[in-house]
Amino acid sequence: IRIVAPAALVSFIAYVFIGSDFTTAMPGLSPAAATPWLIAPYLLIIALAVAGINVAIVLSAGIAATFALGLAGGHDALTLCGYMGAGIDSMGNLIIITLMAAGLLGVIKSAGGIDYLLQRLTARISGARGAQACVAALVGIVNLCTANNTVAIITTGAISRDIAHTYGITPRKTASLLDTASCIVQALIPYGAQTLLATALAGISPAAPWPYMVYPWALAVSVGISVAWVRKKREK
Hints:
Blueprint: H1 4-19, H2 40-50, H3 55-72, H4 77-90, H5 92-110, H6 113-122, H7 127-146, H8 149-167, H9 171-188, H10 193-202, H11 214-235
Helix pairs in contact: 1-11, 2-3, 5-10, 6-7, 7-8, 7-9, 7-11, 8-9, 9-11
């Protein structure tokens, strides 16, 4: 939370100013039609995730809460199941891209690309700060090659754990670096599955959202400060 909260605050302020220039409402949505309590499932998922509950339970609770809100809003169970089916069907393109990325990773691994990358990045580690920077760079570069942050984390997880153990980095900080650095890259690359899906739905170029991607850049700066600050603090 100490890493992401400053980036989230900077992004919030930036989007307040950016959003003030837009006066056109979304098609088919008037302010009167907005229903604030529909964000309850999102808030529930965030609260359960912060509490450290297993991800399967968190997502199941979100689905159950959304289903309950749908029933309370007058929808019947069959219609809600249809909505869930449509949501699963809309993920078809994302699944195909993910499978292609996994195949690409297999080719890279088979050609020795990942091993070469690991050797080059870990050869000159000196101290805790360099080790943390190496972990972030490892998962970021692998994510850049595979366009899949989950695959990148799994691929670099073992070597990152070894680096953390050697240089005294806590497992929690290592996991945070793996997660945060991979998500920064995943958000910024125009060929990421999430970006391709979102821009396809919006009917825009995958590069079009770049001017508005404040949070990934702010998060990158926050991660860099975190790595440098921990080293100075430890030395003191």
